[in-house]
Give the backbone structure.
Amino acid sequence: MKLGSIPGGGAIWNTIKKEKDNMAVIPTNNKKLIAWVDEIVKLCRPKDVHWCDGSKKEYDDLCSQAVRNGNFVKLNEKKRPGCFLVCSHASDVARVEDRTYICSRKQEDAGPTNNWADPDEMKAKLRGYFKGSMEGRTLYVIPFSMGPLGSPVAKIGIEITDSVYVVVNMCIMTRVGQKVLDALGENGAFIPCLHSVGAPLKPGEKDVPWPCVPDPKNKYIVHFPDEGAIWSFGSGYGGNALLGKKCLALRIATSLAKKEGWMAEHMLILSLTSPEGKKYYICAAFPSACGKTNLAMMQPTLPGWTLKCLGDDIAWIRIGDDGRLYAVNPEYGFFGVVPGTSDESNPNAVKTIQSNTIFTNVALKPDGDVWWEDMGVPAPDKAIDWTGREWTPDCGRKAAHPNSRFTAPAGQCPVIDPDWENPKGVPISAFLFGGRRPSTIPLANEAFSWEHGVFMGSTGGSETTFANLSQAGVLRRDPFAMLPFCGYHMGDYLSHWISMASRTDRNKLPKIFFVNWFRKDTTGKWLWPGYGENSRVLKWICERVEGTGKAVKTAIGYLPEKDALDLKGLDVSRTDLDNLLSVDVEGWKRELADIEQFYSTFGDKLPDALKKELEGLKGRLEQN
């Protein structure tokens, strides 16, 4: 489509990539998309407009441009080929939950755990922020697909941004380019995602390495679930700016999933194959700091067992034609936490990020490589830390920010499952929930039923440490690890989970388990070694799926019998094993009181089935 066919389009679009006839061509005939981009161009007033084609040449050109402009640092090509380091502004280092909004038409639809604002009032306010926000910058149009193109649950988004960092990260994290526009067609629906760092440039003004709005009060990450749109202003970091990730793949997707009868979950997907060749697919949800990525790429210590990764963060789940639940990873890459990633904790992640990776907020060594805390290699004598200052091991500062990240293509993972891009998804054998709990919660626990499993997932959470809240031992409930990511009322979300049992044959639903790798004894010693040894628990879970695993029925669920876990070659004492697989009745009674208080948050939206499960647990504990 030529620009001249768009009323008033010639002046607006004359900066799009030129063709030989000196006329710019818009690479789509989708009138709704063209009109939306035109509207945003007029609002944000960029210097240039670029439609992303998703090619390697485009990616390489943008990274080279960012290096020349001082936004990126190219790393040592021999040590980390195709890798770059980016360091953010000190005010822009993580998701900003207090500036994240669910702007549903009715406040009650957002629920008590989300920030809400009237959608019309919020849009009017944001238009004021976006007006002229891209002056002096290039506006990039990123057509992207969450999920493999052609998948029954794939969704197309269009992100408009003025950040090169966002463009290249989205090219890694999602499927980007002309193929997406071709799939969209002339009349296809898309999710509009608008983003600006909020830092217009005056003529001749030199850009800064990380443009953003420094004042947190002027950052906004806003979701409009009733129209399926996302507007983000002021932040250039992670899930605040890569709008395909938490914003679309969870907050907007949960609302769509509820309407359309599927599930959008904060879950890893892995496959586990037994020595006999039987393959099991497992989805697992854990709050932060519970080892999700480590589990997703784990190297089993049990001989003959093989683990493959399909995704480390998000699963979209639908009911297949055979009545089973099928999971698809909507992402195309990993956006993982760097500190603590080592050959001991996650050797497959270390291999994944050896090339073609963007590192954010880690330290730069004199040899042009990167370094971070708990990397498993000695600290350099000196480096440049993530703030740009000289760093030495005895300077008293962290070299890498605690939330520093790597962005790497999922296809580079050495244990990526061959079915990770299967458009139909993979059939789920089991759901795992977990948390970081030093006491009360046993190593492994199987639900009695689907409803009991939803109860277990709804009460999950972790106890904090001094490192993250300046107060240790505070229990934070995080149902299904979804509290910051559910795009509607959490009580309705729990009802949606309950309803899956009525949408298919409940005998075809996955079994549900709760695991806790973080149990300690009274001296503070870990009772379970974790990492690759967790495969021993996964083996028991697979045996329970088959109906062969030995278990004992307790007040809280089915626990492994003392000899049910394969502990061959593992040094775990009988006393520690008893603690790991025991029911702490008094601890669970205290747990009940906390669950009741937490459930009161949801008022009359709490499903009756969960009230019944709570009363059932009370009764069973009283009998012990």
User: Anything to note?
Assistant: The two ends are 74 Å apart (CA to CA). The chain has a mean pLDDT of 93. The chain has 18 helices and 31 strands. Residues 314 and 322 are 23 Å apart (CA to CA).
